[in-house]
Amino acid sequence: MGLNVHVPGADFVALAEEAGVGWIRVDANWFQLEPERGRYRWEVLDPGVRAAREAGLEVYVTLAYTPEWVPKVARPRDDDYTGNDEPVGSDEWVTFVEAAVRHYRELGVTHFGLWNEPNLDGFWDGDIDAYVDKIALPGAAAVRRVCAECRTLGPDLAHVGEVDEALDRILARAASAFDILAHHLYGGWEENGHRVFDGDSFLNALEDRRFAFTRASLREVLDRHGWTGEVWITETGYRVRTIGHETERAKQATYVRRVLEEQLERDWWTNSFFYEITDCGVDQPECGIDGYGLTRPTRGYPRTADDYERKPAFETLRGFVADHPELGGGAPMTAACANGRDDDGDGRVDLEDRGCVGAVDGDEADGPRRRVMASPGAVRVDGRHDEWAEAVWVDATGWRGEGDRGELRARLAAAWESGVVYLAVEVVDDAHVNGQPDAMLWASDSVQLAFDPGRDFGEAGYDGDDHELDVALVEGVARAFRQHGSGDDGWTVAATREGDRTRYEMALPAAVLGGSGVSAGAAFGFSWLVNDDDGEGRRGWAEWTPGIGGEKAPYWFGELVLTSAPPAGEDAGPGAEPGLDGGAAPGGDAGVGAEDGGGASAPGDGSGGGGCA
Questions:
Q1: Would you say 210 and 188 are in contact if contact means Cβ atoms under 8 Å apart?
Q2: Cα dist. 232→363, 528, 569 in Å?
Q3: What percentage of the chain has pLDDT greater than the value 70?
Q4: Which of 332, 348, 363 is the last residue of a domain?
Q5: Could you tell me the CATH number of the domain that includes residue 313?
Q6: How many domains, in total, are found in the chain?
Q7: Is residue 342 situated within a structural domain?
Q8: What is the CATH classification number for the domain harbouring 466?
Q9: Is 297 in the same domain as 440?
Q10: Cα gap 65→97, rounded to integer Å
Q11: Do 428 and 316 share a structural domain?
Q12: Are 112 and 74 in contact (CB under 8 A)?
């Protein structure tokens, strides 16, 4: 639960703390933070972001709005405001995103939004395809390139007009750009007098289309694109248009309560940010969005938290969060991962929940998924790893099996070029044993790789879009076998053994993964493990995440993310009125290359011995 605060100060941070929320959303306006090419003014936001993080608040940073110096697409414009102008290209944007993410990650920020309401001309004067091509895809790749643990959010559309068509287009082309789907929704409630012919209610817009001939709901659009990830409502609220009007203030409080009640009923809707923390000023009739605030200033600047009247909506929010601590930012219950309850509402309890790292873990909430970042570049598949000197490697840190892992160590790196994913695995093991037939490669020293291109992270076995490939060095020959999934078997694999090190390389064309898109910004559910056989059969495996060896469950997977090359050198809510104060717009070589595969076999067949293949 959070609040929109735009540019936070100590007063706003104190109010957010008092409300009990766990998040704030801030405006990282590109035109303010980089007023000239390469000159950054981080001091605009730094004090507030630091204060928020010191107070224990999480910060969602929205990156948006074009500076005057950036080359823009030539088109007739009738204003001097450049923030909504479509840039000619994306190089300047990518450079800014990388710089901002690097800077704010050091302050503890991990969640970044890619523009604000690009379906409104006041915030983006290009079309939706231009937003996808110039902002969403390159922006997501930039975030992921410099911060593997960071999360991208968007598209933060305003739920007005043909928003369903805009979201359709974005998800069809760039669903992988977003780790969390962020959306703005300002619909009415029946309790406040909203009637069917007043337009879409909040619930109509959210998931219950009003009529067959009216626009599709948010959930309807998400479902037809297979979106199963988190959804955040990053702007919602009610405007009290007349200062001090008690009936309107009561309706605002009801609005807050109803949003919170409905969020608690849905496990896919995981966060909400009320717009906004305070009104424009003591008395600002010229401010076209005045009245959305949950508080109202009682004096001009400078202010402290004591200089704000708490409206009934603020008190409602504070009381509701106090009664439902899972919505706020307070300390989690003790030993949430050992209390026999489903504390985060995802249907999994204690150590069966991905959010638990041990029985003494006090937070069952699922954290960000682990990531492998694939850099662009071709690889010669020869098992020598000559091209991987600058790669970012990830280690298989988990161990499942007899005793401990002993000397076994394993790491993986990834790269890609158009249409092909490359993987490298290095295993340190004092013995290498594998004389198995293809379908049983997993039963001795080998590598298992699993992909979930649709990122639906299924919980019970593999489904139709999942793939598992097993790779091993067998009597001096690199072998590969498809354990699950339908697709072309035209992979290339190679392996070498030198001393105590076995090195594997693989080229996986898109067709191997069922035709999945292999391009900048793409992301796949992914995991891998290394099996260990010291001469008496598989004794266990080292895994990056669970989900392959113990059970076939993409739920546990991390992600493989393809980064782009570094750049050269009704009530629409306040978003419908851009530019207003308070708004968002201002050498024993055993290597032999091989191209072979086998028939698909059912997941888990031959998977005895206390674990899956």
A1: no
A2: 20, 30, 35
A3: 89
A4: 332
A5: 3.20.20.80
A6: 2
A7: no
A8: 2.60.40.1190
A9: no
A10: 12
A11: no
A12: no
| Residues 248, 375 share a domain | no
| Contacts of 193 by beta carbon, 8 Å cutoff, 6+ apart | 251
Mean pLDDT in residue range 543-554: 93
Q: Is residue 605 part of a domain?
A: no
Amino acid type, 547: G
Comparing 37-41, 123-127, 366-370, 597-601, the range with the smallest average pLDDT is 597-601
287 vs 185: which has the higher pLDDT? 185
- 543 and 422 inside one domain: yes
Q: What is the mean pLDDT of residues 555-565?
A: 87
Q: Are residues 325 and 394 in the same domain?
A: no
- Do residues 93 and 210 share a domain? yes
User: What are the CA-CA distances from residue 396 to residues 246, 388, 453, 554 (Å)?
Assistant: 60, 18, 21, 17
Residues 297 and 246 in one domain: yes
Q: Which residue has the tokens 């789907």?
A: 181
What does the alpha-carbon distance between residue 496 and residue 505 come to, in Å, rounded to a whole number?
9
- 304 with 451, same domain? no
Rounded Cα distance, 182 and 584, in Å = 15
Residues 393-441: pLDDT tens digits?
Answer: 888 988 888 877 888 999 999 999 999 999 999 999 999 999 999 999 9
* Res 268 pLDDT > 80: yes
pTM of the model: 0.64
Quick one: which of 148, 155, 149 has its CA closest to 178? Answer: 155
Domain span holding position 316:
2-72+80-332
Instruction: Check residue 529 and give its pLDDT.
Output: 97
In a domain, 112, yes or no: yes
Tell me the residue type at 266: R
Which residue has tokens 């919170």? 260
DSSP string, 116-162: S-TTSTTT--S-HHHHIIIIIHHHHHHHHHH-TT-EEEEEEEESSTT
List, in order, residues 6 or more apart from 54 with CB less than 8 Å away: none
Distance CA 279, CA 548 (A): 52
In a domain, 598, yes or no: no
